[in-house]
């Protein structure tokens, strides 16, 4: 099973200095995203990458499209939105690609081209962690209002009718322990 995040760049490293547009698709090699919503392992991923030779390295601009799988953090409804993540990364073809006075002190080392291949997986994992919602809600992902009317509003949001305090149905089973 070949990862859609791995690109063969041998021709770019040894060939012309013209950018190349590549598209690959396949199953995700791992689950990518936070706990409540993510690209599932084995889920179809489409990667459209623009790879630009930089002499001793490569610049990559990529759009990753995949269907997410998760749950609303309020009503626990299954969510399956399609999301596009954007990744920008520079890969070094040799260790001396970027040098300078602070090069030894720099904690963020550039990823390396390994055996004429680049792997965007870690960049996609990082982008998913920064972009995807930690606590997804139906409304934020275009599903409209939550399905369960009994689910109370999130903390900090007042409801119009507050006649009685509603018990969150997800916790209702714990009442017998009180």
Automatic annotation (TrEMBL):
InterPro entries: YceD. Residues 147-166 have a biased composition (Acidic residues). Residues 147-168 are annotated as: Disordered. This is DNA-binding protein. It comes from Corynebacterium glutamicum (strain ATCC 13032 / DSM 20300 / JCM 1318 / BCRC 11384 / CCUG 27702 / LMG 3730 / NBRC 12168 / NCIMB 10025 / NRRL B-2784 / 534). The lineage of its organism: Bacteria, Bacillati, Actinomycetota, Actinomycetes, Mycobacteriales.
């Amino acid at each position: 099973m070949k990862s859609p995040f791995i690109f063969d760049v041998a021709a770019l490293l040894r060939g012309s200095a013209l950018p190349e547009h590549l598209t690959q698709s396949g199953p995700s090699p791992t689950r990518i995203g936070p706990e409540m919503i993510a690209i599932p392992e084995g889920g179809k991923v489409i990667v459209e990458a623009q790879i630009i030779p930089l002499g001793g390295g490569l610049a990559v601009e990529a759009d990753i499209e995949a269907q997410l799988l998760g749950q609303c953090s309020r009503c626990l409804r299954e969510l399956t939105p399609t999301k596009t993540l954007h990744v920008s990364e520079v890969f070094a073809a040799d260790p001396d690609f970027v040098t300078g006075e602070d090069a030894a002190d720099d904690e963020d080392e550039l990823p390396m081209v390994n055996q004429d291949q680049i792997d965007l997986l870690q960049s996609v994992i990082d982008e998913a962690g920064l972009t995807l919602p930690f606590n997804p809600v139906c409304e934020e992902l275009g599903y409209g209002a939550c399905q369960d009317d009994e689910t109370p509003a999130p903390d900090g949001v007042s409801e119009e009718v507050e006649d009685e305090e509603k018990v969150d149905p997800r916790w209702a089973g714990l009442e017998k322990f009180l």
